What we know:
Elements (H helix, E strand, L loop, with lengths): L3 E4 L8 H10 L4 E4 L4 E5 L4 H21 L2 E4 L5 E2 L5 E2 L3 E5 H5 L3 H5 L8 E5 L6 H13 L4 E6 L4 E5 L6 E4 L7 E3 L8 E3 L1 H4 L2
Parallel strand pairs: 8-9
Antiparallel strand pairs: 1-3, 2-3, 4-7, 5-6, 7-8, 9-10, 10-11, 12-13
Amino acid sequence: METLTLHIPPAVGLTDEQFYQLCIANEPWQLELTHTGELIIMPPTGGESGIRNSDLTTELNLWNRQSKSGKVFDSSTEFKLPNGAYRCPDAAWVKLERWEALTKDERRRFPPLCPDFVIELRSETDNLDKLRAKMREYQENGARLGWLIDPQTPLVEIYRPGQNVEILNFAFNQPPKLSGESVLPGFVLDLTIILNP
Length: 197
């Protein structure tokens, strides 16, 4: 199954509540809404992508349990970005102070913020150019660090505010270890775990 994109005319639009109810009514589909009004319908992931997503979230969560510095989110979490888009990164982390500043209702629904750290993991049906645009959108909306991991190429693109994208091309037998840098001090992801589900 492939990702579908529907165009919603500006005159029609969707309120926050309508989009929330649309998402609830259409499980297990994952819906995103771009800031220009495109409704993106993503099918459930396959087995290998599911294992990779789970491994990413597990590694991030294990680090966070030690640091106690924020909250970790899996690929089913929808964030409302400052530009009005609704996005679901494959894994995300939000600094604790920012999370605690949200109201109980904002935490319960789609948190109205851009995560400090995001990971997008390319699956077989993902378009690389669209994922790159999504990563730039996170960057423009306040993400302090982002990783686009493409097991197919294989490559990793690292997104940082105000900097050019750093691209790491690598062989399957020599995957890099990625550092959480100053955003996630002490977090290191060994891509061997992700590339061999």
